[in-house]
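Protein folds are increasingly written down as discrete tokens. With that in mind, we are printing a sequence and the tokens encoding its fold.
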Amino acid sequence: MTAGEISEKSKAAFKALAPLEAVLFDVDGTLCDTDPIHLIAFQEMLQEIGFNGGVPIDEEYFIQNIAGKHNDDIAATLFPDDIERGLKFCVDKEAYFRKLVKEKVEPIKGLYKLTKWVEDNGLKRAAVTNAPRPNAELMISTLGLTDFFHHVIIGDECERAKPAPDPYLKAIELLNVSKDHTFICEDSVSGIKAGVAAGIPVVGLTTRNPEQMLMTANPTLLVKNYEDPKLWACLEGLGKKAGDA
């Protein structure tokens, strides 16, 4: 991918953010590539209870029905006739996920380059996620970013979780910044939709979800990871050190 592939519309959207005040980050798939860990947890635990006739769910099923979605929606998809059971299953699955995370979590390529740029430019920042708080805090802590984030916003603690805009609007309010001078990093259709609904430009990461699928949610820019030249071309001029990044 080259900087030349950036649309004029994307460049103009980023230029309009000056002076940049804040960057908001989703957690799963945006700070770290956790979808493979979630997939393992779902595969093993669903197989244990004989879901799908004991045949493990595949990655395609996971992307279509689970990735980026809130646990209430996942419970309704997996157990439409017994939502309570579905919710209990999701709680147990999250506990198993936390055990796996400690061994397997890896930052998205270039993450620390971007977090350093954000810090060097004195920008405010928050993590905004549909993950349960224990999961989010564990992932953030495992990545060494506990002190980086000023706030961690949890979908469950808002009136509505993503894809509604509420979690991102709450972040803007808590950070006391303007949405006209903020951008979001996201990796799922649900998350991008939440950012777009909040009226904030979104950088979509093609960590796991196909580019065509993410484009349906109208991100401002799509990048492979945080080392993508397209991202840095857009950030140029937005921070005092953008040119050196």
Observations:
- Residues 241-245 have pLDDT under 50 and may be disordered.
- Strands lie at 22-25, 124-129, 151-154, 182-186, 202-205, 221-223.
